[in-house]
Structure formats: C-alpha cells, structure tokens
Design goal:
Layout lengths: L12 H20 L3 H6 L3 H20 L3 H23 L17 H15 L1 H10 L2
Helix pairs in contact: 1-3, 1-5, 3-4, 4-5
C-alpha cells in the first residue's frame, strides 16, 4: 500500500527545506494574496492567488511524494515571482504603463524567500536526488 506524505524525512535536507518553504509560501499566498510585484505585472488577483497557492502547495506535496511533476511545479512557482520582479524592474507589465522600479523596492524579505526557494530546488544535491529517485 502506498502512503501519502506531507514531509519526507528520507529526502536530502535541501529538498526538505524547500518543501517547508513551499508550504509556508502557499499558506501566505492563499491568506494574503500574491506578492505586490506579481500583482503589478500580472493583475488578476483572485485567480493569481489560487493558481500560485496551488502551484506552491501542490509542488511541495508532490515533491514529498517523489513525483517529477511536483518538482516541475515547484520550479515554476519559484521562477514566476523572480520573473515578475525582473519585468517590473524593466517597466514591463500587462496592466498598462508601469514605471521602472528597482527589484529591491518591493518586499526585500520576499525576495530573500524567493531566491532561497529557487536555490534549494536547483541545488546539485536536490537535482541529483530528483533525477535518480523521482518517478
């Protein structure tokens, strides 16, 4: 019988911490909405809240259960906020003209979590583990 896990203690520490961060960000995204910089670049707030929360939580759950699709979901959920910051820094958005704003002017603590999540997911130990063990 196959068990479903929320956390997998047999995975490397980098993936375990990434799963914690994915759950943490999913809860805060569902409760408080997406980050400000994402809302400026991609303006559909309610839809964005549900999609980003689902990507984050689903990615964490599927990584804990060693599924490749969860790793891909987590990578997408980790790249989208950084892409939104980059587009905002260039003054590009889908809601009309946006003045160019530096990437550190919106939520520097959020930037720290975004970079940490992506760094944990693309760490060589995480990539090697998912390449070998994920189905």
């Amino acid at each position: 019988m196959e068990t479903r896990r929320w956390l997998n203690q047999s995975q490397p520490q980098t993936l375990q911490i990434a799963v914690f961060l994915l759950y943490f960000r999913a809860v805060f995204t569902l409760l408080f909405g997406a980050d400000d910089q994402i809302q400026v670049v991609f303006p559909a707030d309610d839809l964005l809240r549900v999609v980003m929360g689902s990507l984050l939580a689903g990615g964490g759950f599927l990584i804990a259960n060693e599924k490749r699709s969860g790793y891909a979901m987590a990578l997408v959920a980790g790249v989208v906020p950084l892409l939104a910051r980059f587009l905002l820094a260039l003054g590009i958005g889908f809601d009309g003209d946006i003045p160019a704003i530096g990437p550190f002017e919106y939520d520097p603590i959020g930037l720290l979590f975004e970079v940490a999540l992506l760094a944990l997911l693309v760490h060589p130990q995480s990539r090697e583990y998912q390449r070998i063990w994920f189905k």
